[in-house]
Amino acid sequence: MKEVSLLYCIPQNRLQSHFKNGRLSLQEAIYAHCVWVFVQHFLNRLGNEYNTLTSVLDTSNSVHAEVLSKLKKRLRNETFTADYILEIINQYPELIRSLYLAFANTHYVQTRGDTDDFLPTLSYLRMKVDRVLSDQELKELISKTAVNEHHEMVMTAFRVFNSAVLKTNFYTPTKVALSFRLNPDFLPQEEYPQPLYGMFLVISSEFRGFHLRFRDIARGGIRIVKSRSKEAYAINARSLFDENYNLANTQQRKNKDIPEGGSKGVVLLDIQHQDKTTVAFEKYIDSIMDLLLPPTSPGIKDPIVDLHGKEEILFMGPDENTADLVNWATEHARSRGAPWWKSFFTGKSPKLGGIPHDAYGMTTLSVREYVLGIYRKLNLDETQVRKLQTGGPDGDLGSNEILLGREKYCAIVDGSGVLVDPNGLNREELLRLAKERKMISNYDISSLSPQGYRVLVEETNITLPSGETVNNGTTFRNTFHLRESEQYDVFVPCGGRPESIDFSSASRLISKGKATIPYIVEGANLFITQEAKLRLEKAGCCVFKDASANKGGVTSSSLEVLASLSFDDATFLSHMCVQPDGTVPDFYTAYVKQVQAKIQENARLEFEAIWREFEETGVPRSILSDRLSMAITKMDEELQGTELWENVLLRRSVLSDALPRLLLDVIGLEKIMER
After folding, report:
1. Is residue 230 part of a domain?
2. GO cellular-component terms in the record (predicted)?
């Protein structure tokens, strides 16, 4: 059964040839396949020389910073490719067997007796016969066997993997994907200065994915990344872990207004399985749950070795390409007997007591407070502001930004292409698309002015009204936000890949030392790198970063979970769940309005604080945002280490002020504290 489920998880592993000719058992081959994936993300490719260079150069010098940025990207992209790593691993089947034996010796749980009637596998027989080497012996064996330094680095990563795995479902009889709970201490502090609390790696034939969190109790969304081409997939695969780490780190900073720390999950679909979004999500969630829930069905979910030794609960929410899947996750957690099923996922259907972010514009409400704050401070007429937006009317942020904004839209970029009209796009047509959640490919181009145009990603050799020829629609779409010839007053990224503007490309938004776009509010996570933000701010651009601007969604999620934990099951159903006939409880309607008001208040207060500090000190807003986040989260951690919680009067006073008034009125402080 265990071997069959391994084949189901990864039917075609990258060391299949060794399995076919008997050099490796099935378990050994799939183990090596998993480590191959691990090595791609965690082999330290920068080296000590890069760290030395970083300490010597002045990173505040734009020329030095650009050189370091390009060097880092080249070292990571070109030194150890996936194919090169696999080529090395394939040369050492004997080493793989010894390394697998050490892994199995730690995590294999024998659930059958020696006298039971079953056919032992090759790897099982080896476990009975071969001697398990210590880590020091494995280190010496690798050093003697590897033919050069590169080979030794790759095979040493197997030891790192073995040491990092705290628990895994590798030997669970039934599973849909392979999941590993890792100790993140192996990460180099120079590259990842903020230490992670927890790390999960999930591997399947359709995808690979991580879940990272900075605190034990942490909140963040799960996103699924798609790739349009093999080249795009290669880029996405190389940046997968760093993207996940940076997203979780941003989440940690933006969670300053709520009790939970920051987390994030990122799932990368394999290039051959771009249509398997739902399958990948379900496998990712179920395999992580294998490591969260105790086994209850012998022969189906057997006990696992748990070196972490503590109960873990993850709190997740919707993100790119997963908004429609969270209902399944909630129901699945309930079906597997998870006691925390109500709070496992947020943003779920109102019928399950959820508050969907997109339906109520929760994230956009905080982004809009920053946009409106700029207009208010500078006495700008919103209707006359020329606006560029990435992320179209089909998405959560993009659609709600269109619905709530009254600016003069001059350009919108989304997954389908680019839509431009210097005289302003037709507002009624944009509202129609936003309400129907359709891409700009559905825009009625008959409403464009003579200077307007649309270029779709699949189009080639298109002539623009200016006479310029667009050779490739996809390339035009991907780089449109960097075009020097366009003129906008405000740019609100509501979608797009991380690092769409980096230190180098930011120069294209600067002319004669002055930023060409005066105001940027970063709705999309990590759209602009920190170095690029500082470069733009130095050129006079007013930039408000993601960790401040788009924090509304996490506030909504936290308050949604608070309600689910505060009510018992019966009152939760009657107060927070929309009835099958569509009847919305009065409490639910009022609670959603209170959540929206809290999001706007928090955003407004932070905007005012950053604006005031910038006026008084001149410190870039992007740095002020981080300082504010770090100060609040540090204070939170320090308070947790005190005995203030034991002061009952203080505890009651703080909670009475912090908890939503509606919950206090309906449930009462005593009941909430008890639950």
Report:
1. no
2. mitochondrion
pLDDT of residue 298: 65
> What is residue 119's predicted lDDT score, i.e. its pLDDT?
45
Where is the domain boundary, 549, 571, 593? 549
Q: How far apart are CA 235 and CA 478, in angstroms?
A: 14
Look at residue 561 in the predicted model and tell me its pLDDT: 93
Q: Kindly state the helix (H) or strand (E) to which residue 7 belongs, with its residue range.
A: helix 2-9
387 and 485: one domain?
yes
Selection from 501, 559, 491 nearest residue 526 by Cα: 501
Q: Quote the pLDDT of residue 1.
A: 59
Dist CA 6 CA 204 (whole Å): 10
Query: What does the pLDDT read at residue 115?
Result: 45
Cα(641)–Cα(652) distance, integer angstroms: 18
**397 & 448 share domain:** yes
Same-domain status, 470 and 330? no
For the stretch 565-613, pLDDT in tens is 999 989 999 999 999 999 999 999 999 999 999 999 999 999 999 999 9
User: Residue 264 maps to which CATH number?
Assistant: 3.40.50.10860
Helix axes 2-9, 26-42, angle to 10 degrees: 40
44 is a domain residue: no
Does residue 366 share a domain with residue 318? no
User: Could you give the C-alpha distances from 410 to 154, 306, 384, 394, 418, in angstroms and in order?
Assistant: 50, 56, 11, 18, 11
Structure tokens that stand for 462 in this block: 């298109």
Same domain, 598 and 653: yes
From 518, 549, 580, give the residue that closes a domain: 549
pLDDT of residue 116: 45
The per-residue pLDDT for 167 is 98
Is there a domain that residue 152 lies in?
A: no
Tell me the per-residue pLDDT of 181-193, one tens digit each, with 9 for 90 and over: 999 999 998 889 8
State the total domains in the chain: 3
Low-confidence ranges of the chain (pLDDT < 50): 113-119
Side-chain half-sphere of 640: how many Cα atoms within 13 Å? Answer: 11
Distance CA 666, CA 585 (A): 13
Say how many C-beta atoms besides its own lie within 10 A of residue 665's C-beta: 10
Q: Over 586-608, what HEC string results?
A: HHHHHHHHHHHHHHHHHHHHHHH
For residue 10, the tally of other CB atoms under 10 A from its CB is 21
Q: Does 401 reside within a domain?
A: yes
Q: For residues 497 and 185, what is the distance between their CA atoms, to the nearest angstrom?
A: 28
Q: Which residues are catalytic?
A: 264
Residues 491 and 636 both lie in one domain: no
Asked whether residue 428 falls in the same domain as residue 327, the answer is: no
DSSP letter for each residue of 357-396: HHHHTHHHHHHHHHHHHHHHHHT--GGG-EEEEES-TTSH
In one-letter notation, the amino acid at residue 208 is R
Give me the domain span that covers residue 604.
552-674
